[in-house]
Each structure stands twice: as C-alpha cells, then as structure tokens.
Design a protein that fits this description.
Strand order of the largest sheet: 5-11-12-18-15-14-13
Strand content: 25-35%
Low-confidence stretches: none
Number of domains: 3
Distance between the termini: 33 Å
Number of strands: 25
Mean pLDDT: 91
CATH architecture of the largest domain: 2-Layer Sandwich
Structural class: alpha+beta
CATH topology of the largest domain: BirA Bifunctional Protein, domain 2
CATH superfamily of the largest domain: Bira Bifunctional Protein, Domain 2
Number of helices: 17
Helix content: 25-40%
Shape: globular
CATH class of the largest domain: Alpha Beta
C-alpha cells in the first residue's frame, strides 16, 4: 500500500558550484584542510558522509575493473619510488606546466588554462569555430614549445587577470610540478626522492612481477587506486584541481598492432560506465587531445558538464611501448613478454616483445565532484491541505542507492511506548549488512529533511502499528512516497536497491 505525496510544483534544478561547496561542508562531505589555521590551499579533507560516498565510488570502479574482467588484476604500489623511475618516465626533465604571472596582481596562472577558459567562453557564446581554432593554435604552440607564441595568443585574445583586470603579463615559462623530499636518517647522507605525480609508473615497474605471479597472458590489465601529488600553481574549482588527489587507473597491456582496437574498446566502455553511474549522456562528451605527448598514439578525455563548464573526469590514452621501453633502457632489466600464440601470417609464435599499453585514468575526486553536482537537486513542492497548503523549496541529493553514504535511517515516531526499543532492534538487525543510522530527535518531517540532504534513499518509521503487526513505513527519498511493509522484508528490499549488481548488470 502506497501513500503518494503531492507532486512537485516546479521542475527540479541543479545547484551552482557555490551551493554545492556550501552543502558539502555543512553536511559532512568535504572540509577545507587545516581550516582552524585558515586552511591549506587546494587541499581538502573528506568528512563522515564524504568518505563513505568516495569509498563507494572507488569500490564500484575497483569491482567493475577487477571482478568483471578475468584478465584484470590489482596492485597497490608505494608512493615513494626510486628516483630513476621519474627520470625514465620523463617527469624529471619534462613534467611541467606553462605559467604566466600578472605583474599588477602578482598572481600566477597556467597559460593553457587561461586559453582553455577563453575557448569555453567562445563556445558558450555560440562561436564554436572560434573556440576550436583557438584550442588548435594553442596545441600547436605548446607542441612546438613556442612559449612566446602562447603569450602572444593570450594578448591577442585580450585575456586579463581576474583580480587586477589588466593584461600586464610576464613571459610564459615552464614550472615543474613534482614535490621533492629527502630520504635518509642524516640530512647530509640523504637522497632526493619525489612524491609520485601519477600512479601509472608503479604499475609499469611491476609489469613482469604481476604478469608472472598472476599468470596473466597478454592482453591483460593492472588496476590501481592511489594518491598522487602535484604542485599545482592554479588550484581552483573546489576539489576539481588539488595538490593531493586520488587516481583510479588501468594500464592494459596489448600485443603491438592491436592497440587501436583496444583503445576504442576502453573508450566506449569507460564512457558507458559513467552513464551507468548516473551521469547523463547529454552531460558527457569526448574531447580529443589537440596536443599529444611525444610517445602517445591517441588520447581522449571524457568530460562532464560541471557548473563551471565541461571538464575532464577521465582520460584514455594509447601510450605505445614508451614506458616499458624507457624502464628497460635505464634499469637494464628486460621488460619483454614471451607470447606463445601463433602469428597467422608467419605460422610461428609471436615470441618476445615489449607490450603496448592502453591506459584509462579517472580522478576519484573529480568523479566524486561530478556525482555530487549531478545529485544536488532543488525542487518546489506543495505540502498541507486547504488553508494550510504551502509551497517550499526542497533540497536533496539524488544519489544512486549503491553509492549513498547512508542506506537507511530508522526513526521511532515518538520516544515512548516501546517505539525506540523496536527501532533499535531493526537497527541491530540491519547494521551488519548496510550502513544505517537511528534518529529520535525532532519532528519526523525534520528528520526526513536531514536524510534528504545527505542522500539517504530510505527512511524507516516505527509507529504504533509496528508494535501490533511488525510492519513499518518506508519513505522513499526521490518520490517521497511511503510504503508499508513487514520488518522481515527490509533486508531483502534494501539489499536489492543498494546492490552493486544493479549497476553492473547495465554495463
């Protein structure tokens, strides 16, 4: 039996970034790091609800990669690596961003970001061709390392500092993004090492260890979730660009010559995953790289339309054999794989070769932000009857039950007549399977509102009838409908809704 509320009086709308940032702090999703000391720029902490949501997103990615694919296994590599790792990968010599300073405000900016933002403005104004021309020219200049040309492009576009409102720019120069530190007990005997700027190299240096121990045959993949660190000068847009962040990466090793088809495969699969996770198809798009790394054969970003425009949430790259070959050269340890399969053209085994790599790299923090932006909803609803009828704005997080921080909240209608005790029984019966909470304070409407604001899909109300027939009212977050059901059915009912299977079956 269902008790349906009055329908919303106005269409649901999404919030601005300022709304979402404020909501994230107030309801325990994201806090500024070291806030009592006025914070540390571009570093954030995940609160009680934020850590649950982020962990759920990471677990879904992990299981989708390693559990649904027999030829993908996991790894958890150390943050500190031998410094020659970063020499081989090119990070020591070439991991930098083009920076430009405004002489009036004394603020530093990434030159490419300034130009990308201007291109986004052109696109927003309907000048798509102008935006594409600008990005293509920027890519050409950066590829040829023509930093003077990049500066002139900024001047030609009449880009000004948002603080000083002037175009009094310095020359553009490269700024290395790696954090360095010392390893060793005594300062004078210590060695320079780096906090890893990406997680991929930990996979590459363990390629043969994993392949042999996991008895994998090419093609196969190695998945990893881990922290990375970049000394971003331009860190903005909340948790979109941070100095300490988390990557979810798959390095997929393939036979040379097959990388193109695997690149297209993972490009399709990864976009599909984001759609199944709840990001609408019309708010996702592919953006092919205008500037390819010197080793790359192809690269594309999956972009989501944030409140501040389309931005990357995941990259798919065809990396060739660059990484393994570089490590083989510098370490003098062979990184070859023996392929016993028969080449139909020669009739002989493929033999030894350095595999090519197709990479998918998603930002856990960016996925978290995209999920939060998409889930944040404001709608106008009508409550009450007759003279007491009123409209109000309802804010809630429309999170998929599988990723919601809390799966169900249990409310005794009143704090007497045995209802709190019965609610405690239900809480104890469910807490081993799901993250549930019990609340007794305030009117039932206020308790519903609190759960809506953190995205809890179900509220379970214990009332007088519960004590008579062991049934409860289950209130649904999105529709606000209320359904009566036996307590004995709760575990199966919630379990069906929050199961990862509901997502996996659509992949």
């Amino acid at each position: 039996m269902s008790n349906a509320p009055k329908p919303a009086a106005a269409a649901t709308t999404e919030g601005t970034l300022a709304n979402i940032v404020s909501h994230a702090k107030e309801y325990g999703f994201v806090f500024q790091s070291s806030e009592i000391y006025d914070g540390l720029g571009a570093v954030y902490d995940y609160g009680p609800n934020g850590v649950e949501l982020k962990n759920n997103l990471k677990q879904l990615w992990w299981k989708a990669m390693t559990q649904l694919h027999q030829n993908v296994v996991g790894l958890d590599a150390a943050i500190f690596m031998h410094p020659l790792t970063w020499k081989a990968s090119g990070h020591v010599d070439g991991f930098s961003d083009p920076m430009i300073d405004n002489l009036d405000s004394k603020k530093r900016y990434r030159a490419d970001v300034l130009l990308e933002d201007r291109a986004a403005e052109h696109e927003k104004n309907g000048e798509l061709a102008r935006a594409e021309t600008l990005l293509a020219e920027m890519g050409r200049l950066l590829t040829s390392e023509d930093l003077a040309g990049v500066r002139q492009l900024i001047i030609d576009e009449q880009i000004v500092c948002p603080i000083s409102k002037t175009g009094n720019w310095t020359e553009v120069r490269q700024f290395n993004l790696m954090f360095s530190t010392q390893v060793g007990a005594v300062a004078e005997d210590s060695s320079l090492i780096y906090l890893r700027p990406e997680t991929a190299q930990g996979i590459f240096v363990n390629f043969l260890n994993v392949q042999k121990s996991a008895r994998q045959k090419v093609p196969f993949g190695i998945a990893q979730i881990g922290k990375a660190f970049r000394n971003e000068i331009v860190a903005r847009q909340f948790i979109f660009r941070m100095r300490e962040f988390e990557q979810m990466e798959l390095q997929f090793f393939v036979r040379p010559g097959t990388e193109g088809e695997w690149y297209e495969h993972w490009k399709t699969m990864r976009r599909r995953w984001h759609e199944v996770m709840g990001l609408p198809a019309d708010k996702l798009r592919f953006h092919d790289h205008d500037k390819l790394a010197h080793y790359a054969k192809a690269a594309v970003d999956i972009e989501y339309e944030f409140p501040f425009g389309f931005k990357e949430i995941e990259g798919i790259h065809s990396r060739g054999d660059f990484d393994l070959t570089q490590h083989q050269t510098l370490s003098k340890k062979k990184q070859q794989y023996f392929d016993a399969d028969i080449d139909p053209e020669t009739g002989k085994a493929y033999g030894n070769y350095v595999p090519f790599v197709v990479e998918t790299s998603a930002g856990a923090d960016r996925l978290f932000l995209a999920t939060l932006c998409q889930a944040y909803q404001e709608e106008t609803i009508t409550e009450g009857e007759g003279d007491k009828e009123q409209t109000k704005t309802r804010t809630f997080l429309k999170l998929h039950p599988a990723v919601a921080p809390v799966k169900a909240a249990i409310f005794p209608l009143v704090k007497k007549d045995g209802m709190p005790e019965k609610a405690t029984e239900i809480f104890n019966a469910l807490r081993h399977d799901f993250r549930v909470i019990m609340e007794e304070r305030d009117a039932i409407g206020k308790r519903y509102t609190r759960q809506d604001l953190i995205g809890t899909p179900f509220c379970i109300v214990v009332d007088g009838q519960t004590l008579e027939d062991d049934t409860v009212t289950v209130r649904h977050r999105d529709s606000r409908e209320q359904t009566r059901m036996p307590i004995a059915e709760l575990r199966a009912y919630i379990g069906e809704a929050v199961s990862f299977s509901r997502i996996f079956e659509r992949l």
